[in-house]
UniProtKB/TrEMBL annotation:
The lineage of its organism: Bacteria, Pseudomonadati, Pseudomonadota, Alphaproteobacteria, Rhodobacterales. Residues 126-345 form the ABC transmembrane type-1 domain. GO terms for cellular component: plasma membrane. This is Microcin C transport system permease protein. The chain crosses the membrane at residues 9-26, 128-149, 161-187, 217-240, 275-302, 322-348. It is a multi-pass membrane protein.
Length: 358
């Protein structure tokens, strides 16, 4: 087992490098680099994408700055100082190697447009994303797995039919549309004002008792978490049902029934560990997508300032330290979650031996 874990950890290194190389290369061809953003603002806030020639906004040229919008009205020396300040006076390869060396030491640099380090900026936004991602994933699994098992056991019954209809409706409704519906109904949109519309806590949060703080926290996150849970809940329930149905029809289940074993014993001692493998395999993708990538619209609707909005704003502003720093951290976390998932396989079904396969 230790040899397998070591191999997987070593594989993380080239995978991370590959992810960073691809994304760094793509930014060299994206129009409207960070210096162009600054020049456009200084020249009156014009569109930085107008008049770009050659599409080389990510890779900056030297000297006079003739490739930049508005550079005709700014001294060439000023452009050179901006390039030097942001490090764009160096060749792309040198910038990339320097960036990766800093990332190995978990030094993600400082945001171009905010007087704060990338690490501190991510930590500032992390509570929102932890709240949305963690509770969404836990609730989705806590509801979907028992419901999926019950639907598999009662396949074809009225319970299965009605719940399938509800699940299909839930899957068909986009999370952001469901969020708008909840706001209209329960957050003072047009009907009742039961839940707050913004923030994770109230303004008087520090003055509340411990029980009051817990209640205030869940009161604020109820609607956004519910909005994000609906789609993942529907998918996971159907996946669990189909997985258990496939296992229930196998020969070993019929043999266990012939030996007189009870239904619950067969279901949870034999079927469960086999059927849950496919469910667990989807955990890393679900966790990472919900935790980091799937909350932009929900954060915007409920006025929450999390990693989703941070990543979007950084990409629009070409704030490359924030873009690459968060990309590196999240990719590393996703790879580690994948290793943990493999270990979970072996915990559920000891017959799986990845080391022997290697």
């Amino acid at each position: 087992m230790s040899a397998y874990i070591l191999r997987r950890l070593l594989l993380v290194i080239p995978t991370l490098i590959g992810i960073m190389v691809v994304n760094f290369t793509l930014t060299q061809f994206v129009p409207g680099g960070p210096i162009e953003q600054i020049i456009a603002q200084m020249e009156g806030g014009g569109d930085v994408f107008e008049g770009i020639s050659g599409g080389g906004g990510g890779e900056l040229v030297d000297g006079g700055g003739s490739d930049y919008i508005g550079s005709r009205g700014l001294p060439p020396g000023f452009i050179e100082e901006l390039e030097k300040e942001f490090g764009f006076d160096k060749p792309p390869l040198e910038r990339f190697l320097s960036m990766m060396w800093n990332y190995v030491r978990f030094d993600f640099g400082q945001s171009y447009f905010r007087s704060i380090s990338v690490f501190d900026l991510v930590m500032e936004k992390m509570p929102v994303s932890i709240t949305l991602g963690l509770w969404t994933t836990l609730i989705a699994y806590a509801i979907s797995i028992p419901l999926g098992i019950k639907k598999a056991v009662r396949d074809g019954s009225k319970f299965d039919t009605w719940t399938s209809g509800a699940i299909i409706v839930g899957y068909a409704i986009p999370g952001f549309l469901f969020a708008i519906l909840l706001i209209v109904l329960f957050a003072g949109g047009s009907y009742w004002r039961i839940f707050p519309l913004r923030g994770l806590t109230s303004t008087n949060f520090d003055d509340l008792s411990m029980l009051g703080k817990i209640g205030d926290y869940f009161w604020h996150i109820a609607l956004p978490v519910l909005s994000m849970t609906i789609a993942s809940f529907a998918t996971l329930t159907l996946l669990t049902k189909n997985s258990f149905l496939d296992e229930i029809k196998k020969q070993y289940v019929l043999t266990a029934k012939a030996k007189g074993l009870g239904e619950r014993t067969i279901l949870y001692r034999h079927v469960f560990r086999n059927a849950m493998l496919i469910v667990i395999s989807g955990f890393p993708a679900l966790f990472i997508s919900v935790f980091f990538g799937g909350s932009l619209i929900i954060e915007t609707l409920f006025s929450l300032d999390g990693l989703g909005r941070l990543g979007y704003e950084a990409a629009v502003a070409r704030d490359y330290p924030v873009v690459f720093g968060t990309l590196f951290a999240f990719s590393l976390m996703g790879l580690v979650v994948g290793i943990i998932t493999d270990l979970t396989y072996m915990f559920i079904d000891p017959r799986i031996d990845f080391e022997a396969r290697g």
